[in-house]
Design brief:
There is one protein chain. The chain is α/β, with parallel strands linked by helices. The protein has three domains: 140-266; 267-369, no CATH class; 388-569, Restriction Endonuclease, CATH 3.40.91.30. Helix content is 48%, strand content 12%. It contains 25 helices and 19 strands. The strands form seven sheets. Strands 14-15-16-17-18-19 form a six-stranded mixed sheet, with helices on both faces. Helix 1 crosses helix 2 (33-42) and helix 8 crosses helix 9.
Length: 570
């Protein structure tokens, strides 16, 4: 059976965790699970025994690593990131030493919708491959098979059908897909027959039913996050039992299924049967078309793509190609075809893109470049413990400054900050306070808000105004905070409720406090939405108090606030 680890089913947080790891670990020659755990705890993205930060790491660490919660959580993340082709074992003989792939670089730093590259990476998952050593023997492009099976099964599929018909079967050709559909057809009509089939499979493969179902948590979350399916409950397909939770194809899901029905699906065995020349062509064509579907600008590579398509004219014609090299073959082979030269690296060394003679430029991070793939600002140091602003606060505390003195000193530093500086600063401050917060990346249309404090039940959208946009928080920011809440509740990209606050954050408090307070009160009366307004000085003061106490929890107070912040009452 194909098995997926389950570090969590919040896909936006999963992507954010990868982007954070990439930011702090990408310049290393390799990194391990302990490096991942240290990074996640330092950024308050992982907890242990009810604590975050260094205390969480200390409480989690065990001499027996198999009993170490954070170590095991990082191991699950690493397994999924490797499955997505974003990370790879640096040495096939040292599977717990990792580095990022070219695909992972794009997923982490591309200035495009990360949901799109995640979706393409999900469709790129295929077994067997040269990346992962798995226990099962199935030959499957898993998510393609789920989409195609649902498409041919009246547009619906359920969890147990996925377990019985997809995760335990091959899908290598038309005959195999028909067998999957036939399995689903034979299950339907009787919930008792379906349940018995699950019990029989459990006995046959030696895996408990609830364990098999746990393996589907990440895949099921993916189906709705990618917009392919919506969840419904119906007795239409199993009328003799309770209403069954089903996944119903959306119009977009149906569109993707139809695309996959017509696609050229290249698997490992087919790739390895090609000549060396055609293997290189398949790597480039598969990778570039994958980026194109993920909304990258591949225009600099159009000439190369045309040449490669001509080489594979008989095999491909005009059909879409699904071959994800960084999820199928060793990355050294893929890098060579893409013209990437892995120089011997020190901790500071980076991977350099070497342009092949037949190709003018590489497509990197949605733009064109012939230089470094990990293109961080030249003055941006790799931070391994905490954020830069947290270290500055800690330094000022050591010098003997009080919380308000610290806030006053730092406040002046950001008087002319642009949104490129100010938005990440605000996200870092909320993270210090105890939220799992990240600023939205430019160009992500599905995230209407400027930052989001993610929670399993009470996520908070944050509208931010930098001082170069408006020096004082205005009624416009309050209106946009209301819009953020409505959009979040409508799109359900993060979980929240009507009672949780939506925030407007800026440099100075409102100039006309009465007008802003009146608008907040009107919104509460009309829409029953609580809006909180926080200025930078107040946020810095709370962050300083949090760092000083190393554990004071202001999260619930902010989550339930309404109106303008009053630091004295927190």
């Amino acid at each position: 059976m194909i098995r997926f680890p389950n570090p969590g089913s919040d896909i936006p947080s999963f992507i954010h965790i990868f982007q954070t790891l990439h930011t702090y670990l990408s310049d290393r020659s390799w990194f391990g699970l302990d490096d991942m755990s240290a990074t996640l705890t330092s950024m308050n993205l992982a907890a242990s025994s009810g604590h975050v930060g260094e205390q969480a790491l200390a409480l989690s660490t065990r001499q027996d690593r198999s009993r170490d919660p954070l170590y095991n959580q990082s191991k699950m993340y690493a397994e999924l990131f490797r499955t997505l082709g974003w990370m790879v074992s640096d040495d096939p003989d040292a599977v717990l030493k990792f580095r990022f792939t070219l695909l992972g670089d794009h997923a982490a730093v591309a200035d495009v919708d990360p949901k799109a590259i995640f979706e393409e990476s999900i469709l790129g998952i295929n077994y067997p491959n040269r990346i992962l050593a798995i226990k099962g023997t199935e030959a499957s492009r898993v998510f393609s098979a789920i989409l195609r099976a649902a498409y041919r099964s009246e547009g619906h599929i359920c969890r147990d059908e996925i377990i019985l018909a997809v995760l335990n079967r091959d899908d290598v050709d038309e005959e195999a897909i028909n067998a999957i559909v036939e399995t689903i057809r034979n299950l339907r009509g009787s919930a008792a027959r379906r349940d018995q089939a699950i019990e029989d499979m459990s006995a046959r493969i030696g895996i408990q039913v609830n364990t098999m179902q746990n393996y589907t948590r990440f895949p099921l979350a993916t189906l709705t996050y990618c917009g392919w399916f919506e969840r419904i409950t119906t007795k239409l397909f199993y009328p003799d039992g309770r209403p069954t939770p089903m996944f119903k194809l959306t119009p977009y899901g149906r569109q993707r299924a139809e695309e996959l029905e017509q696609a050229v699906d290249v698997r490992l065995s087919q790739f390895e049967a090609q000549s060396a020349l055609k293997q290189q062509v398949l790597v480039r064509l598969g990778f570039y078309t994958m980026l194109q579907r993920a909304n990258f600008d591949i225009s600099p590579a159009i000439a190369q793509i045309a040449t490669d398509k001509e080489t594979l004219r008989m095999e491909v014609a005009e059909r879409p190609v699904f071959f994800s090299p960084y999820q199928t073959i060793r990355p050294e082979i893929a890098d060579n075809a893409m013209g990437i030269n892995l120089e011997p690296r020190t901790e500071e060394a980076q991977r350099i893109a070497v342009v092949p003679q037949s190709q003018e430029v590489q497509v990197i991070a949605g733009q064109t470049t012939t230089i470094q793939l990990h293109q961080l600002a030249s003055d941006e140091a790799v931070i391994t413990t905490g954020s830069a602003i947290e270290r500055r606060i800690a330094d000022l505390i050591e010098r003997g400054l009080q919380d308000k003195q610290i806030a006053q000193q730092l406040f002046a530093d950001f008087r002319t900050a642009t949104k490129e500086v100010f938005y990440p600063l605000i996200a870092d401050l909320f993270t210090i306070i105890g939220f799992c917060c990240h600023a939205s990346r430019a160009g992500i249309n599905y995230e209407r808000w400027d930052a989001i404090a993610v929670d399993d039940a009470y996520s908070i959208p944050i509208e931010i105004k930098s001082p170069t946009e408006e020096l004082f928080i205005s009624v416009k920011a309050v209106r946009q905070a209301l819009e953020n809440k409505i959009v979040l509740l409508s799109r359900r990209s993060y979980i929240t409720d009507w009672n949780t606050v939506t925030l407007a954050v800026g440099y100075n408090p409102p100039n006309d406090r009465a007008e802003v307070s009146r608008l907040i009160a009107d919104i509460k009366t009309t829409f029953n939405v609580s809006i909180g307004v926080i200025d930078l000085f107040s946020l810095l003061t709370i962050a300083a108090a949090t760092v000083r106490s190393d554990g004071s929890n202001h999260v619930d107070v902010i989550r339930q606030m309404e109106g303008l912040i009053n630091v004295e009452s927190i």
